Amino acid sequence: MLAHYFVAIFLLSTINSNVYALKAYSRYQLWRLYVTNNEQGAKLLDFSHTAYQKNIDFWSNNYGTNMPIDVSIAPESINSFAEFLSSDDMKIKYDVIMKDIDAVIERQNLIHKLKPSSVFVDDFAYDKYHPIEEIHAWIDKMVKTYPKLATPFKVGKSYEKREMKGLKISSNKRAVKVDGTPVNKKKAVWWDGGIHAREWISPATIIYMVHALLSNYDKDPVITYFVDQFDYYILPVFNPDGYAYTWTNNRLYRKNRSNTSESGCIGVDLNRNWDYHWCEGGATHDPCSGTFCGSKPFSEIETAQVSRFISTHNGIFVHYINFHAYSQLWMSPWAYTLTKPEQFKLQDDGSAKAVQALRAVFGKY
Ligand SMILES: [Zn+2]
């Protein structure tokens, strides 16, 4: 009995120390806003650029009338934001969907620690989130367990010198074209997750998918076929510094951890730092904003290194998926313009099939 008592105390004190090290979101609320016309959307977009000054954070980046917009609000800004939304020239309706974000974070921490894993395979809990060190150890474990298929690769080191560690899946079978003739040089697929630090389900999803490919190879004919057709380069955590920071300091942190020109404002939105129509839409030059695009394209070591890695494997990559965790959207290029790309039909047909396949599993996304 005494031993149990000590175990319980130890467990609770571990939980407490973790919870209290994190930034508190006590009485922060999450609201869901319903925009009904383009004018409201434009005004809200305008407001969103400086909203961080009031500790108001727009979680959605779509200001159209087709989808609601989720916004977190610090307790001190709740009244003024409510007034702003109900003012004569806004008149935007909203629901409060979380009354205390901190309570939700704490509950997740507790459940995570206390609930045993029900998907525990190859010494790893696939239904739990894992800190960066455990994800890297898991990559090594996969390489050891599936030596004929899996090899590790390194993209480089992050700003804070963490490894950007990936895993390549490649079988020794030749890929074949639709007509059955062999492909000369196997094409490759790139998947990455966790470019936005707080989106934990993104690395977790990729980890689950990688394990599904490895453990079902030579067992499931569909998976075996897909593994044979392509080489898979997978980077589960694109932004290791930001990801580590969400475990130790701030559960809702989004950017990387590099210094900016503004002291006190850390980090660049790596998903806004690419060298193609850089910072043209949905991004800002304000270093304090959550969507800061950096001082120039590829200013950040993480994006620059991924770009270099892909460029040096020139010609083999035919597909890139960047996994996120918000909005329930399957998106394809472009984002900076409404003009459709040349391959739009191909992209759109593929997207529709992917969404259909996802929906077929649980009836939702
Ligand atoms: Zn994201």
Could you name the CATH topology of the domain at 119-247 and 301-329? Aminopeptidase
Mean pLDDT: 91
CATH class placement of the domain at 119-247 and 301-329: Alpha Beta
Give the count of helical stretches. Answer: 10
Low-pLDDT parts are 1-20
| Number of beta-strand segments | 11
Class per helix and strand makeup = alpha+beta
What share of the residues lie within helices?
A: 25-40%
Main pleated sheet? 5 strands, mixed
CATH evolutionary superfamily of the domain at 119-247 and 301-329: Zn peptidases
* Envelope shape: globular
Bound molecules: zinc ion
Q: Secondary structure elements and their pairing?
A:
Layout: H1 2-21, E1 29-34, H2 38-48, E2 56-58, E3 69-73, H3 78-86, E4 93-98, H4 101-114, E5 120-121, E6 124-125, H5 132-145, E7 150-157, E8 163-169, E9 187-193, H6 201-216, H7 221-229, E10 230-235, H8 240-248, H9 301-312, E11 317-323, H10 344-362
Bound molecules: zinc ion (ZN).
